[in-house]
Batch of 4 targets.
Target 1
Amino acid sequence: MTYQDIFVVRPAGPLFGSVKINGAKNSVLKLMAATLLAEGTHHLYNVPDITDVKIVAQMLTECGSKVFFVGDGEVIIETPKTSDITPRASLELVAKIRASVVVMGPLLARCKTVEVAQPGGDDFGSRPIDYHIEGLSSLGSTFSERDGYLIGRTEGLTGGRVVLEFPSHTATDNILMAAVLADGTTVIENAAREPEVIDLAEMLTSMGAKINGVGTSRIEVQGVPRLGVANHRVIPDRVEAASFLAAVAVSGGEVFLEEAREDHMEMLLRKMRSMGIHIESTPLGIWVKSEAHLRAVDVSTLPYPGVATDYQPLVVTMLSVAEGTSVVSENLFSGRFRYIEELRKMGADIVTDGHHVVIRGASKLTGAEVRASDIRAGVALIVAALVADGETKISGVRHIDRGYERIEQRLRLLGANIDRRAVGRKESD
Ligand code: EPU
């Protein structure tokens, strides 16, 4: 018998108070990988206490770095000299966190070789890494496969022109981290423009990299022979901010999201305002106020600055209790509707058709036993449970813990009724 955590949620009415939005998961994982680029002692601040950060810390440790969690969101990483680095990401770690492919760029740049276990699909469909490989190949590396590992080698990276077929977030990060130490100039066309890519570029620039055009679709990197150490504060997590916004939107109430930034989530906030949610930005964070009477809107997910795919389960959940019919289209990940079956168990009236969902809102949700299949699906189920009659039990909490620090405690402080419980299960479950 092993134990796994579940969340038990009951409706508790409107939410009030203030919550600090933590550092962005999808930034910090890449920032940690970027410390492999330079020998010395790096300091990262505002690092969230989430499982994915611990897995990347373990990966850096296997590469030869020393990682110290000194408390209060500060992490110190000591990166060894090149000859003491083991340029490898094992299957055990890549299987746990697909973002670990992001060590490919820094390790190739630093060690001229890298071995990374081939990532499989995940809970929302197949997620290839062909753009990463093509991009790194354009910078003078070659790849082969052996025993489930992808092996990259280079005589020394050289600048090149990379045209991404799609503005892939992590492929942009990976190529950027390789290009900063390549010989000559690299141009990344159709680059991702996410705030987390800008955060990475800002940290690299502070380490001595020469990068132009970040935040636009054309990034130009002038390679330098070496970089210095990083001292960097992680930007706030816009998806975590969106999760608390959604919780208040459906429950009603008034909450201040400390450090949340409107400029990182403009399109989503535009959609949320059309739903009837009051949102006000201040230099210190975002106020959200809701009477819990939401209106239908149509939403399509797109690369930044469009509405991010990571918000999609939250958006569908909000619309399932809104007045009217909405259509939501998912344009990034084919399998990202799997959680909808769980929302239906709770009484949501949702029909899927290819990559579209039609939501007939104003459903009265009821508590049920549901399973979180990935991080964002999991948090969307919490949001639904906050307004579902009776008790909801959410399993698969380990997925939620990958990206949210003690979410239940933070929601409880705002007035939600949510508890974490350990339940036994058979090894074979
Ligand atoms: N794609 C390819 N080939 C590639 C890379 C991507 O075909 O080599 C496709 C993907 O299959 C997808 C599209 O390109 O259809 C975009 O994928 P992208 O590469 O941008 O996604 P990612 O970088 O792997 C990051 C976040 C995801 C987030 C997406 C989209 C990290 C660690 N992950 O993934 O975050 O959904 O960008 O914004 O940064 C999450 O936090 O829950 C999460 C899944």
Target 2
Amino acid sequence: MELSPQVLAGWLRDFAADIATNEALLTDLDRQIGDADHGANMVRGTKAVAGLDPADFADARSFAKKAAMTLISTVGGASGPLYGTFLLRLAGALPADGTIDQAGWSTALRAGVQGVIDRGKAAAGDKTMLDALIPAVNAFEAEPEHPWQAAAEAAATGRDATIPMVARKGRASYLGQRSAGVADPGATSSALMLAAAARTLA
Ligand code: ADP
Ligand code: MG
């Protein structure tokens, strides 16, 4: 498929719209196991990214890098640098020739997820955004017929799987056992990011 700044902007604008629609949900989840700022953080950051004009960028990579830096400087909290690193590593793995195939997307998604792991030092089962992102990239690779749909579904399943988990990373981990029973806010916003990808990139 074509890989242009416009294609990536389409994805990230769809994500921003979904975040805005779900701001209250993200705030409420973070109120229960964090500090109630994940909705506001994500709205601020994704709105800033949606305001970037893809026509100002020579290629998808430079657009994605700017979007990543924008997330890092506007989202704040723990999630800002993590989302920013996801997109920055993804950007660095994008092919430079203006097209991308399924293997290329798989490499880029993997690089993004590895960036979150490197930066946050969390693992699967720690009740973080990784519990949506890791299953998503695994499903993307396992379902070549409809990879984006599979990734979005796996992210949603991964989000739901965080409900009984006890947090071992981030603010929610301060609650210990009391962090169980609520979906992780970052896994919830990550599932929205994959759902937007399935609608715009498939
Ligand atoms: P803060 O926790 O600083 O208030 P946010 O509320 O915006 O930041 O984001 C919280 C989310 O960040 C959590 O729900 C979790 O998904 C994610 N998160 C926190 N720490 C880590 C980490 N070390 N690795 C991966 N994700 C993390
Ligand atoms: Mg928070």
Target 3
Amino acid sequence: MLEDRTCLVTGGSRGIGRAIATELGRHGADVVVNYRSSEAAAEAAAKTIDGTDGSAMTVRADVSEYEQVESMRTAVHDRFGPVDVLVNNAGITADRRFEEMTREDWDRVMDVNLGGTFNCTHCLFEDLRDAEEGRLINVSSVVGQQGNYGQANYATTKSGLFGFTRTLALELAAEGSTANCVAPGFVDTGMLETVPGRVKEKIRRRIPLDRFARPEDVAGIVRFLAGEDSSYMTGQILAVNGGMDW
Ligand code: NAP
């Protein structure tokens, strides 16, 4: 159980982040549902959590903007106090074959997927370090392990999280806090809806378990990483991909 734990999930309004936020709430946590634009979805997620053993607040903040993340920290401290568990989940794609990719496509994905991870971890570093067994959990992707056609920008951000996770694991270890990473395969969310049907079918054929992941398949693993049972694991990458090679 996660009673007395404050967990902040970036991009908690939809998809995988919403499933993670709900799962942590179901286990008794105080959950911060961060979002950028989907206010109604974030409020609905918070309402679901309030109906379980947990309690929730929503905070609008674009994670790629440092000042907005600082304001989010203040709002969270005022309501729940310091953060024990940070889940860096917010992420975007801007897919294009590399020769057509613009510098703007590149920067946009870097700013959210890696810049947002820097901003949130940096703003909350003291909380995580000083917590009783703080937890930093980064949401990467099988695409960071394998690469993927049309996703040079996205794959680079997702591989970047591996080095970031292992380094933060070292920098948090002396205080007993951990940093780990989940690398989901292809998950049935709004992000996958942008992939053409023919490409999706090709991907599905490469998944030994013969289905896309449900957001809940990832959320259960994140809940394990957030809890006590993972105390002696740090710097790890957990693949949640239906058996895909990498
Ligand atoms: P999604 O359904 O598109 O949801 C993305 C979430 O991120 C939304 O809650 C969105 O909030 C939030 N977000 C986007 N930009 C943001 C920003 N600048 N600041 C704050 N929040 C922001 O995506 P998903 O499939 O759940 O993906 C979640 C994470 O899992 C991402 O890091 C993704 O790379 C990773 N992942 C996804 C898959 C997959 O197949 N779906 C596979 C592996 C890994 P708003 O709606 O409020 O803008």
Target 4
Amino acid sequence: MIPKSSILLIEDEENIRSFIATTLKNQNYKITTAASGTEGLHLCASLCPDVVLLDLGLPDMDGIEVIKKLRTWTSTPIIVISARSHEQEKAKALDYGADDYITKPFGTVELLARIRTSLRHSSQMNAGSLQQVPVYRHKELVVDYEKHLVTLSGEMIHLTQIEFKLLSLLAQNSGKVLTYSFIMEKIWGPYVDNNNQILRVNMANIRRKIEKNPAAPEHVFTEIGIGYRMAEADQS
Ligand code: CA
């Protein structure tokens, strides 16, 4: 049996801590817990876990500070655990280098999916293979980065230059949420103003072209108040 990955959970609420710890133990993950930011930082340095689960509301320091400190020396995936309706906080966490977030209250299935996605991304990153995947496939949608081609059920979809760049950026980070500010900067450069209107308009156009029902998207999902997440590529 392949040894499962190690996970460090930094969370001060005991009931959430034990729920997550039990869930992950049952899945054979190696789990270590910390109840404060300071303890979490120490444990992360000594254990070098494969994934960090981080609550943003900690008693001794802001979770954002923990992210900033970790990102000075490690690229280990950080999944933020946050309360509902704290969109700005989540977006900030992502912009400071968290990889993903999960909103309380969450279920086991969602938690495990987030962890698997983060582990897959980091192992692809380490293998340097993330950039080499030439094609994104999800259901009937194909994005071919090199040929600059998007097809839906084999039919070519005409996208503008910006729309193609936008869709490619999301596809190359599929499964991950990308914040509005991250996308804006990547597509329009660092001096773009932070009005998201131009992004929303382009995204609406993309959806009209690639989604059967733009109101119930299958490929690009809106993370309200935060950004967009493209469906994880099919595993070939
Ligand atoms: Ca807390």
